[in-house]
Design goal:
Blueprint lengths: L5 E2 L2 E2 L21 H8 L4 H6 L16 E6 L5 H17 L8 E6 L5 H13 L4 E6 L22 E6 L6 E2 L11 E5 L1 E3 L6 E2 L10 E5 L2 E2 L5 E5 L5 E5 L10 E5 L5 E6 L10 E3 L8 E6 L5 H10 L5 E5 H11 L17 E5 L8 H12 L9 E4 L9 H11 L7 E6 L2 E6 L1
Parallel strand pairs: 3-4, 4-5, 5-6, 6-8, 7-9, 8-11, 9-12, 10-13, 11-14, 13-15, 14-16, 15-17, 16-18, 18-19, 19-20, 20-21, 21-22
Antiparallel strand pairs: 1-2, 22-23
Helix pairs in contact: 6-7, 7-8
């Protein structure tokens, strides 16, 4: 009789599958503790803590985590906020305090309360935290009224990313950041205070700082200059800085080893985009980007370009190019001369299919920018989105060659929609 078939009016059933002892093994639990903890460090701490119910093996494993990730979703229910705060307190109380922390991540959309937040900061510092990421709405501008400044003198911190989610006011930072091990820093919507009468110098004491990102940053009323001074800094991004509405306020760089510089302004506001200058010639600058989507004055733009005179690869946005063309159309600014880009090897123009610019306009803007530059080879690139066709690079290259053929090599390379083409002129 064949099993599972109906025979003489009776239905036989399939026998239960007998699993071997090999198949019934809990392979995950057999992994070493350090492997399991490595996996658990990639998930939210609440999910990691839930593993304690799996078996005796897992009961206390989460207490050895080196990464704490707390995520509080946006909610209108105060009960959820209270439960979240209790959970965080429980984790800090029960975790094995003999183990150092590597990473702490906080994503908070409601008020966490200054007392609990400061407890987290003190716990992180006392346990030698190395990386700290915070997305928090700081509803009070003064650091002393909300966030214990102990985190800004942490000796072990190598990475700090602070995002103030509150629209106003910006979070006021200490005058100087005493972070000797810090290598990477990202600050969004913060306020810098002057260390003397007019100058704010928050980064001078961060001797190992390599990467710096500033966005939506302000100067306090008593400051006129944001002085970014650091001999080790190699990468700097300045995005939508809102200093003041007068040319007396500016950003000054003292970063002799800077290799990458990005300046971006996307939002039009009542704040005039401030001048940017440098106390050194930035002789190590390899890559530079100017991305403008709002109106700025021609003198400010020329000042920015002056900072990039030693760059090797320069990328300009569509908005930047249109701004140059606007200035060229004004007879009052036609006599203004761009700087000499003494090391420039590649000029890239980035746009998309929604913003059309003609061959003649590109050619005119590029010729203006490079009129004083002794170029050996030029790489002009237009990166288009969603498969748009590139139509104007060849006329631009021909125009450049005709403008100064003796200064351009026998062949030019250009990037056509991310595909490299070569050809002589």
């Amino acid at each position: 009789m064949e099993e599972g078939k109906e025979t003489k009016g009776k239905l036989t059933t399939e026998p239960k599958i007998q699993r071997t002892s090999e198949e019934e093994r809990d392979r995950l639990s057999e992994l070493p503790d350090f492997v399991l903890l490595h996996i658990m460090n990639f998930i939210d701490t609440k999910d990691a803590l839930r593993t304690c119910i799996l078996s005796k093996r897992w009961k206390d494993l989460w207490k050895h985590l080196t990464t704490l990730s707390f995520y509080q979703s946006s909610s209108l229910f105060n009960e959820r906020v209270v439960n979240f705060n209790k959970f965080v307190s429980q984790v800090l109380s029960c975790r094995d305090g003999s183990i150092s922390l590597i990473n702490v991540r906080l994503v908070i959309y409601e008020s966490i309360g200054s007392q609990l937040l400061n407890r987290i900061m003190k716990y992180a510092v006392l346990h030698n935290v190395q990386q700290l990421t915070m997305y928090i709405p700081f509803y009070y501008g003064k650091i002393s009224t909300y966030l214990d400044p102990i985190i800004f003198s942490c000796q072990s911190l190598t990475y700090l990313s602070l995002h103030n989610l509150s629209s106003r006011p910006p979070l006021e930072l200490p005058k100087s950041l005493q972070l000797p091990a810090l290598k990477s820093l990202c600050l969004i919507n913060v306020l810098f205070t002057a260390t003397d009468n007019v100058c704010a110098e928050p980064f001078t004491t961060c001797n190992l700082l390599n990467t710096l990102v500033l966005k939506y940053c302000f100067l306090h009323n008593d400051a006129k200059i944001l002085f970014i001074s650091n001999s080790n800094l190699s990468s700097l991004k300045l995005m939508d800085l809102k200093i003041r509405d007068t040319f007396q306020h500016k950003v000054v760089l003292s970063t002799p080893n800077l290799s990458s510089l990005t300046v971006c302004f996307f939002e039009a506001s009542s704040f005039t985009i401030q001048p940017l200058s440098s106390t050194c010639n930035l002789s190590c600058l390899e890559e530079g980007t100017i991305n403008i989507a709002t109106d700025i004055s021609h003198p400010v733009l020329l000042g920015w370009l002056q900072v990039f005179t030693n760059v090797k690869i320069l990328t300009l946005s569509y908005g930047t190019l249109k701004l140059i063309l606007k200035d060229l159309s004004n007879l009052a600014t036609m006599g203004s001369q761009p700087p000499c880009f003494v090391r420039l090897e590649s000029l890239k123009v980035v746009t998309n299919q929604f913003r059309v610019i003609s061959d003649e306009e590109v050619n005119k803007a590029v010729e203006y920018l490079l009129q004083n530059s002794p170029l050996i080879r030029v790489l002009l690139s237009k990166k288009l989105y969603r498969g748009c066709l590139l139509k104007y690079l060849e006329p631009v290259l021909v125009g450049l060659a005709n403008h100064n053929r003796s200064q351009i090599g026998p062949s030019l390379e250009w990037d056509h929609n991310h595909q490299h083409h070569k050809g002589g002129l």
